[in-house]
């Protein structure tokens, strides 16, 4: 495994060679190889030029939001978002993120399961039927790593936490990717991770959020302001304060589809 500082150095200074476009990707999302001093790794390269304008995210860039999500993740110490930076590349400036290898898909903690057979320790979060009319549940595990991701999403106001945006590397961690539609000032939280709704936040999470809130008044806040509007950065603080005051996992909003489509 690559230490975080080494991964950042590789991303910052490595030579990028594009491998191809990721098929299920919505914007221009490319997979590339990056090499520095004989070390080669894969990465995801999202050039700003490939971004389709989104009416509800008029400020800044999606790439800047990807980097902001990494900065917040790093400040929590939860290691949720793979190292992500902004730099120039073969198709111009863009977000560059370390590629996370997954051993296989059997480790997934989110998915559709038969409605009568939700695994022990899993939360059903939505009901669905397949073409034959059989009932399924969209469900996820009651896993502390996913719970941290759910709290992180509430902080960054992630509008697109689908199953496929959660990765399970062999190291045993859980990683979140694709944070281009985060940090809006209005509540846009759309996620499959609603299992803990209304439950108390774990004590250690409250400590982490308190520390995160402090960091926003210093270098973290300044770093985020390079990518987000001042108001968007203020709203990160506000959301953390609200989470700490309630000390509970957020409730789904009434006026917004709370689950992304497709959910997986
Ligand atoms: N850092 C990463 N490591 C491994 N796989 C990734 C990484 N980032 C994205 N992917 C995979 O590529 C897919 C497309 O990337 P994503 O960031 O979702 O792009 P888009 O913004 O175009 O939807 C993801 O759903 C995921 O399966
Ligand atoms: Mg995506």
Characterization of this structure:
InterPro entries: CHP03843 (IPR022292). This is Putative repeat protein (TIGR03843 family). The protein has 264 residues and is of the alpha+beta class. It has a single domain, classed as Orthogonal Bundle (Transferase(Phosphotransferase), domain 1), CATH 1.10.510. It contains six helices and ten strands. The chain has helices at 4-13, 62-76, 144-156, 203-216, 219-224, 230-246, and strands at 15-21, 30-36, 39-47, 84-87, 94-98, 110-114, 122-129, 135-141, 166-167, 175-176. The strands form three sheets. A five-stranded antiparallel β-sheet has the order 1-2-3-5-4. Strands 6-8-7 form a three-stranded antiparallel β-sheet, with no helix packed on it. Helix 4 (203-216) runs antiparallel to helix 6. 36% of the residues are buried. Adenosine-5'-diphosphate (ADP) binds next to strand 5.
Topology of this structure?
Elements: H1 4-13, E1 15-21, E2 30-36, E3 39-47, H2 62-76, E4 84-87, E5 94-98, E6 110-114, E7 122-129, E8 135-141, H3 144-156, E9 166-167, E10 175-176, H4 203-216, H5 219-224, H6 230-246
Antiparallel strand pairs: 1-2, 2-3, 3-5, 4-5, 6-8, 7-8, 9-10
Helix pairs in contact: 4-6
Give helix and strand order, one letter per element, not per position: HEEEHEEEEEHEEHHH
Count of spatially separate domains: 1
Mean pLDDT across the residues is: 94
Quaternary state reads: single chain
Beta strands, count: 10
Low-confidence stretches: none
Q: Can you list the strand order of the major beta sheet?
A: 1-2-3-5-4
**Form type:** globular
- What's the architecture in CATH terms? Orthogonal Bundle
The description of the largest β-sheet is: 5 strands, antiparallel
In what range is the share of β-strand residues?
15-25%
| Fraction in helix | 25-40%
Ligand inventory reads: adenosine-5'-diphosphate, magnesium ion
Distance between the termini: 27 Å
Protein name: Putative repeat protein (TIGR03843 family)
Organism: Actinoplanes italicus
InterPro entries: CHP03843
């Amino acid at each position: 495994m690559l230490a975080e500082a080494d991964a950042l150095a590789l991303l910052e200074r490595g030579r990028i060679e594009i491998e191809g476009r990721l098929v299920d990707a919505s914007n221009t999302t490319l997979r590339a190889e990056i090499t520095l001093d004989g070390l080669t790794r894969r990465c995801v390269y999202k050039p700003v030029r490939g971004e389709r304008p989104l009416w509800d995210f008029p400020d800044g860039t999606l790439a800047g939001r990807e980097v902001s999500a990494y900065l917040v993740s790093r400040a929590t110490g939860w290691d949720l978002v793979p190292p992500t930076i902004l730099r120039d590349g073969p198709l111009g400036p863009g977000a560059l993120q370390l590629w996370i290898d997954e051993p296989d898909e059997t480790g997934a903690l989110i998915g559709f399961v038969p409605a009568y057979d939700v695994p022990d320790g899993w939360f059903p979060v939505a009901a669905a039927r397949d073409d034959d009319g059989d009932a399924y549940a969209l469900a996820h595990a009651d896993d502390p790593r996913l719970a941290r991701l759910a709290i992180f999403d509430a902080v960054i106001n992630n509008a697109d936490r689908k199953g496929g945006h959660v990765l399970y590397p062999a190291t045993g961690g859980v990683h979140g990717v694709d944070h281009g539609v985060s940090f809006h000032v209005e509540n846009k939280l759309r996620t499959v991770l609603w299992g803990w709704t209304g439950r108390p936040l774990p004590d250690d999470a409250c400590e982490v959020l308190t520390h995160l809130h402090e960091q926003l008044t210093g270098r973290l806040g300044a770093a985020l302001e390079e990518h987000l509007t001042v108001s968007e950065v203020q709203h990160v603080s506000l959301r953390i304060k609200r989470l700490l005051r309630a000390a509970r996992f957020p409730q789904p909003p009434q006026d917004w589809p709370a689950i992304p489509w497709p959910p997986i």
